[in-house]
Amino acid sequence: MKIRAAVLHEIGRSQPYLESxxxxxxxxxxxxxxxxxxxxxxxxAGLCHSDLSVVNGDRARPTPMxxxxxxxxxxxxxxxxxxxxxxxxxxxxxxxxxxxxxxxxAGGRPALCEPGALANGAGTLVSGARxxxxxxxxxxxxxxxxxxxxxxxxxxxxCVPIDGDLPFEHAALFGCAVLTGVGAVVNTARIxxxxxxxxxxxxxxxxSALLAALAAGARDVVAxxxxxxxxxxxxxxxxxxxxxxxxxxxxxxxxxxxxxxxDYSFEMAGAxxxxxxxxxxxxxxxxxxxxxxxxxxALWAIPAVSLIAEERTIKGSYIGSCVPTRDxxxxxxLFKQGRLPVDRLLSERLRLDEINGxxxxxxxxxxxxxxxxxxx
Length: 376
Ligand SMILES: NC(=O)c1ccc[n+]([C@@H]2O[C@H](COP(=O)([O-])OP(=O)(O)OC[C@H]3O[C@@H](n4cnc5c(N)ncnc54)[C@H](O)[C@@H]3O)[C@@H](O)[C@H]2O)c1
Ligand SMILES: [Zn+2]
Ligand SMILES: [Zn+2]
Hints:
Quinone Oxidoreductase, Chain A, domain 1, 18 strands, 30% helix
């Protein structure tokens, strides 16, 4: 079938993206779903910093690539062998297709699926196939999703069913921002009620972590970003202390306000400067969690003795250490109960052809989550 999709042909075009137009809206040919695959009619897709990181080369991927990895939609066709989804089911797409039987999957850590990671790096579905072509030339899939499109063929293992009453524009956020940010707090860190937390980097991922820390009973949540507008929203959502990352007294202010540092800090900016600060404001015996994805060449140095003498923990968090089929329903239930108001992350609704301007706003940090609404 013919579809419209946002395709990246060349990495590293200059800003403003509204002028250089790294994403071209192309008419692609989408093949029918193969064994174990599903055709999804995309209804809403969010822009995440990880899309920008492909565009600017921080996380280079093979081109041409149809971008987009945070989305919700409706199952439109089933490939052979898919018998646990129905046409018409609502699903979100998850950016790591867990194979179900590699060592991490078998150990309950599908975020680390080995065939999934290989397929994502290669730009294929987990089956190894590419279902997209442009004038007969194969187009790579982005993280098994390629969701800035009216339709996508994805592995069944990239789909998580959701209740039909969850609005698509909110459901889409669960695929990346919510799983990553909430999971970092409740799965990776497992914070205790009454603990203190800090979140550095207030995008969709960081705000999800902030809401999760509050929902999990943190007594104080410190919010840190470069932009005052982000700090204002953090304050209104319940952060007890908001500090600009450029404040030269930041570390002292946070340590003073939290009697020596926070129990848990969460680096959600993808910047080494933020990781350094996150470590500096973590108390003795505390945990520093990082989910931001810096350029693979970026290195981070710490005084090694602090790890030992202060019994520090540093943990990486990918997809919030989530088991998506377990965690999406859990987090969605908290959202419906009003205890995890992730709808507050939705900044703008856009059309697919407005996507290059959306990349500019993302690069400048001006939005939290911009959602592309597909007009079917
Ligand atoms: N681990 C995962 O599974 C996973 C999943 C999704 C996204 N990510 C990564 O998480 C990061 C955040 O994603 P997002 O979509 O929320 O990004 P975003 O661009 O929407 O938000 C990032 C925020 O960090 C702020 N920031 C930048 N430098 C900072 C600094 N030095 N100190 C404090 N704040 C700073 C920016 O002002 C912005 O508000 C990205 O690196 C993204 O690639 C990781
Ligand atoms: Zn993402
Ligand atoms: Zn696996």
